User: Fold these one by one.
Assistant:
Number 1:
Amino acid sequence: MSDRKTGIDKLRYDRAARFYDQFESAMEFFSFTKWRRRLFDIIGPPKGQIGLEIGVGTGKNLPFYKDGRYVAFDISEKMLSKARAREDGKDVSLLLADVESLPFKDNTFDTAFSTFVFCSVENPVKGLKEANRVLKTDRKALFLEHMLPRIRILQPVFDFLNPLARMMGPEINRKTDENIKNARFKMTLEKNYSSRFLD
């Protein structure tokens, strides 16, 4: 975590941890919680294997974990302290780590997943390549991510709002689907969500 920009991201999330859940409460209510539930219905239980959560944040996904073993990490110790309060008996190891330089051997995990993470990683393709490296061959990764809308008329609006969003952490105008492909993942399923009113 010595890189200057990565250090800035860590500081940003350490500062935001105290009120992060309150900031996202409306989005959670209208859409995010529903989408998290759908993601974990797709993931299913690890069945004795090990699942990796990339960027656990304040632990909002922990209530949706199926029975099984997990490792979850975040770049911010203060976000992790919030996540620890949500462990609730889950078989999960919570670690401080940077997705751009993971402390795991190649071919370690059976499943990897993230929710709203690669919108804020400084070098998303590098982080995605690290996620690919630590996955076992032919295993699956699932990403629920913010992206630039495909509706062209909305794109300038997201570009305009992006500096404000970046103050809290995420970028809202990234083409994460392209980054995933550039990290040598084979895309087998892609689904776009908008809001509870359009979904």
Number 2:
Amino acid sequence: MWRPWSVPRDRWRLMPRDSWGDFLTMLREERTASLAPRPVRALAEEFAQAALALLLPQFAHPARLGAAGVDEEAGRLIALLRAAITPLVPDADVVLSAFLARLPAVRALMHSDAAAIMRGDPAAESEEEVIIAYPGFLATAVHRVSHELYRLEVPLFPRVLSEWAHRETGIDIHPGARIGEAFAIDHGTGVVIGETSEIGARVRMYQGVTLGALAVRKTLANRKRHPTIEDDVVLYANATILGGSTVIGAGSVIGGNVWLTRSVPPRSVVQFSSDVAPRGAPDDGIEFHI
């Protein structure tokens, strides 16, 4: 089974005395030590597209349209996932079976996300437009898939899936983040959602939002480092919310460019980093659409 590899630090650099032959010897040793599957990035891209093609007819391959195409898409998805995870896990068939059992729930979440984006964006004319054209939907849909593999403790592959979506959309969602139903990202460029983030239902966020950690020490690797966003919260553009103990209470609205490292109670309005007021006050004035 695949294990992360490392090379002694002093082998990363060639000293002036090293010859081309020494360099090639070092590369041979490094490649021998690395048991990671070489095509994992290409497999991730194909698998992400195959998952979308199976679960959403808008992504179906032109050669696999119609009812008969469903079985072909399913077979392709299974073959790609088996090829990707066989070198990574002790029993690929167990993981594959568990993953397939979760796909109906994943598809339902995708549709709840599309509906939420449609409801929250006056410019969206249909859910089909959202599914086909919106980067926030694409990033979230791929996350729904990668998160299930993360929960099944598949190493490496979920992260590569997320990085494919990141490259396609500019939205960076770690596969470990827990996200509730009806999640809506509008515009989306520059959104960053860290590994231990917890996001409730019906949350809406705009471009540039960061759910991050207060510190990046490796000793914090197995602790909650990222914030909790409760149900029905709106996070406007470029809001930065940091810290594993930071909780944004249900029904709150966080204004653009706000920097928060502390919790706010439910139904709060935060227009400035030091200004927390009850939502619904006569002068809160913070409901707008871009």
Number 3:
Amino acid sequence: MTASFIISVVLAEDHSVVRQGLCSLLKADGGFSILGEAKNGREAVALARDLKPDVVLLDVAMPELNGLEAARQIFEFSPRARILILSAHGDDEYVRRAVDAGVAGFLEKQTSAEILTKALREVAAGRSYFSPRIARRMRDAAAQPRDRDGLHRAEGDRLTRREAEVLQLVAEGFANKQIAVALGISMKTVEKHRQHLMDKLNIHDTAGLTRHAIATGVIYSSVQRTTADQA
């Protein structure tokens, strides 16, 4: 395989053992070059900006910034970025949110090495690729009748990029001061974003925000993460 066919990849996965395994798999294939490895979504965004890989391979559940929010931020500075999601969960809601964000593909972590490398090549070539099981569900959903307006229901509580970042950090237990430092904003601005979150979601305490973050896949609960690790 000549150098011109080598696909450059930035890999984001917070579990070091899984990340090392994926790197070894791709290096053994001979058709991929790992430009950078990230252990959270914020690092993934920075590496994608600086290294400009052919494909960004993102886990969904990562600390500080989850994979879907990381994808949205990458698209802000690189609208043509090719992003492939790798997740322990392939629920329809996760897939829908990923597609809405603009990703080119979605794989479950239980997928085979052959499908992973095929997906990376398809995405790098400008095509989309979804796990066979997910693709079947997407086709079935497309055949279903839509609502009476012929449209998907709009999300009236859609959060801004900054609100989504604050939500994840609040749910992960960060205090306002820590959030301010992490995001490079003032305490007053953090408080304003928290209030906007509560108003939009009609949730008025930290516990409620945390439950919402878990329910919508922004973060995993400890039980969900343990289950994912065992999968």
